[in-house]
Amino acid sequence: MQLFDMIAEMMSFTFMVRAMVVGLLVSLCAALLGVNLVLKRYAMIGTGLSHVGFAVMAIAGVVEIAPLSVALPIVVGAAFLLLRLNENSKIKGDSAVALVSTSSLAIGVIVVSLTTGLTLHICNVMFGSIFAMTQADMYFSIALSVAVLGMFILFYKQLFAVTYDENFAKATGTNVELYKSMLAILTAVTVVVGMRMMGALLIASLTLFPAISAMRVCKRFLTVVITAAVVGVVCFFVGMVFSFWYDLPPGSSVVAVNLAAFLLFCGVSFIRRGGVSV
Amino acid sequence: MPLITCSNASFAYDGRTVVAGLDFTVNKGDYLCIVGENGSGKTTLMNGILGLISPKSGSITFGDGLKSTSIGYLPQQTPAQKDFPASVHEVVLSGRLSRRGLRPFYSAEDKRVALANMERLGISSIARKSFRELSGGQQQRVLLGRALCAASEALLLDEPVAGLDPLVTSELYRTIKELSLDGITIVMISHDIHAAVEYASTILHLQNHQLFFGSALDYRGTDAGRLFLRGGASDAAV
């Protein structure tokens, strides 16, 4: 009963309700999109994009323009660039992402130190400010999750084909670029929105953990997708309750719960296989 | 009119020409084997036929109503696929994707075709198993099942027996031959020159250019064929 009282208390704050709505929806989107990233071995792209987002937000804060309106197009652009780099360039996938993400971080820090110094604003960009979600953020995240869910329902079979075997899909006449572009745009938007709540340093975990946990125990693509979505949403909720209860930073609590869930799923898979291997 | 016409085509990667001087046709019902050493341009040519890359010069054209949506393709597996969490049923069914176009979900007809193809290849009993738990031979059968779901006209296979043991290899060859006898046009890349001349009706031998194109019977008599067959025999003996 104590737990329910506490959840009721949490929900009596408007900022908490907004944090929950935005957080649950972004977790759902991140978990769904993360399945594609993890299976395509693009896992680091979430990190890369959030670091690009960090640089943009830092600069936007200094020159005082609305961070979202600049961050969105630039991070979407970066998503396309990174996915392209992954395909056909001399600098291969993970190194390309590492280059882009560390350079963005460095540029962001230089801009900040030349101007305002390490202020609360920067701290918020790095670690998130989940209780600063506005009504606009809420509507935005609702629109985003409608788009992501809609894509997964209407184009589920295309997403499977593009994730499983892009060349086969292309060779048999599917417009692979279209679906990859949709994934890139929605991933970028999810990272930008989620970054403001989880922070640039932690947002990538929302895309990675649920999918990797689900892959421990699920054998089918459909169950991986559904399990990842459920894990993402449940872990966010539990993490928020923990953070409220023990007065911990919310973003980090959510990631810690995700880690616990991952270890639990590893344990389940270990026992299922008769304790032979993980 | 031939199904696939390749006229004086060349293909390049990163500006470097990999294979040139390609002049051949594939007719309906043909069983064409593309042979040649590693790096001789076999997979590049297949990517060209599939439209994944465009010819640097010359042309590749489809005739006789052949469209990319009526081609089935069995690619070489990537490491990411070997570990992919998908059931056999999901993989085979995904071959129906291009038939379905933009309509959401798969129809009952799609599922029926997928099931029929799984039965034809003897994999219906493992339909609910995960792809990553299967043996190499089973995985190839599943990918062949997917290719069959997509193929109403032609089947393109890139080294379908790579990494398989001899017993599974000959079973897979027999299956492919049966498909050919059923009227499906087969284009296959193979390292196994002996199986190629045994099963295929036509041979295309590449060595970064077209060394031979003609019937399997004629191929045995050519210098290239004799040399390659002998080389293949000594390889097999090792």
Throw out a few tags for this protein.
heterodimer, A: 278 residues, mainly alpha, 13 helices, B: 238 residues, alpha/beta, six-stranded mixed sheet, three-stranded antiparallel sheet, 39% helix
Give a brief description.
The complex is a heterodimer of chains A (278) and B (238). By secondary structure, chain A is an all-alpha fold.
What does this structure look like?
The complex is a heterodimer of chains A (278) and B (238). Chain A has 278 residues and is mainly α. Helix content of chain A is 82%, strand content 0%. Chain A is built from 13 helices and no strands. The longest helix of chain A is centred in the first third of the chain and has 26 residues, at 14-39. The mean pLDDT of chain A is 88. Chain B is of the alpha/beta class and 238 residues long. Helices cover 39% and strands 24% of the residues of chain B. Chain B is built from ten helices and nine strands. In chain B, the strands form two sheets. A six-stranded mixed β-sheet of chain B has the order 5-6-7-3-8-9, sandwiched between helices. A three-stranded antiparallel β-sheet of chain B has the order 2-1-4, covered by helices on one side. In chain B, helix 5 packs across helix 6. The longest helix of chain B has 16 residues, at 166-181. The A-B interface holds A 39-41, 153-158, 160-161, 164-165, 167-174, 215, 218-222, 224 and B 47, 50-52, 67-69, 71-73, 75, 80-81, 84-87, 90-91, 94-95, 97-98, 100, 104-106, 129-130, 133, 146, 150, 156.
